[in-house]
Amino acid sequence: MKVAVDAMGGDQAPQVVVEGAVLAAREGHAVVLVGREPEVRGFLAGYPGAEQLPIEVVHAAEVVGMDEHPATAVRQKKDSSIVAGVRLLKDGGADAFYSAGNSGAVMAAALFVLGRQEGVHRPAIGGVIPLLEGRVFMVDIGANADCEAQNLLQFGHLGAAYMRHMFGIARPRVGLVNIGEEETKGNALVQATYPLLRESGLNFVGNVEGKDVTRGAADVVVTDGFTGNVMLKLAEGMQELMLGLVRGAIMSKPHYKLAGAVLRPGLREAGRRLDYTEHGGAPLVGVRGAVFIGHGRSNAKAIASGVRAAAHAARIGLVQKIQGDLLAASLSA
Bridge partners of 6? Predict the structure, then answer.
């Protein structure tokens, strides 16, 4: 499987993106770096043996900045690395696309170039959150700040299909993010969504409070993009806070340092499980192609993980399988 990678996307692009592509290529993944060719090749030249790796470079002269309006940038910058990369996917030059750049522009390009899957009104971005046991897929995490109940119903189907085919969960449990477990709790949106999910044929387990998301109450949690994005970034901040507190406590006294030395392997494993760079990018579900979005501050390890996830999605035919599930659920028009 060949993954097109936005070489100009991310806070440290193209240097870190090229490094991540080299890591992925050394694992055997075929990569197409899309961006300003002289810059990309300049960084590639710094890796001995890079010319023997399965890496291609496709020139794209323009770059979409993180602060640019997504739809406007996509319309005006047709030779940007994002648009060129998505078009490469559309035209069959790649099997998946990954970008750590402007996520709104990635979504806009995917909509304009690839289009929605049949029956999908609004594609969504999903995020995999690691748990003590397994993981939970939260959808949406930022693509759709304002939603209707029908949108959240579709997010439930898209999320369930993603967990079923990417992680082999035969009948994923789907929960609705709410401020209480009771059916009558919540705002108008979640109250209107609850009966739709209950009658959807999904394995709906009811409302899920924020504290229960990380306790594994569901395999998929559905919410609007505004709430999901706030929850995700709060979780990222809490992770950094907790790791910092543990690190500070261990270093505060000599005998704590000794205990820390004994605990170091376990602490490293816990940190690894929580490390976003281990879990690939966030999939854009509901479009006609395997598209993954990385964090803007992604390092090389995160880029390589994103390429790995995108390649796996393409290999298993994720998009086609999701479409099949939507058809079976009678969601296609």
Answer: 34
Distance (Å) of CA 178 to CA 25, 149, 152, 231: 42, 13, 13, 12
- Give me the helices (H) in 1-110, please: 15-26, 37-44, 70-76, 81-90, 103-109
Residue type, 228: G
Mean per-residue pLDDT pooled into runs of 10, the chain (333 residues): 95 94 95 96 92 95 93 94 97 96 94 94 92 89 93 96 95 96 90 95 95 93 94 80 77 72 68 62 95 91 94 96 90 50
CATH architecture designation of domain 121-278: 3-Layer(aba) Sandwich (3.40)
Taking Cα atoms as reference points, which of 36, 28, 22 lies closest to residue 64? 36
Beta-ladder partners of 266: none
Residues in a beta bridge with 96: 3
Under DSSP, the state recorded for 117 is P
Whole-angstrom distance, CA of residue 95 vs CA of residue 56: 14
CB 206 within 8 A of CB 183: yes
For residues 37 and 57, the answer to whether their CB atoms sit within 8 Å is yes
Strands 135-139 and 220-222 turn out to be parallel
322 and 285 in contact (C-beta within 8 Å)?
Answer: yes
Q: Where in the chain is the domain with CATH 3.40.718.10?
A: 1-119+286-317, 121-278
- Rounded to whole angstroms, the Cα distance separating 256 from 247 reads 10
The predicted-structure confidence for 64-117, as pLDDT tens digits, reads as follows 999 999 999 999 999 999 999 999 999 999 999 999 999 999 999 999 999 999
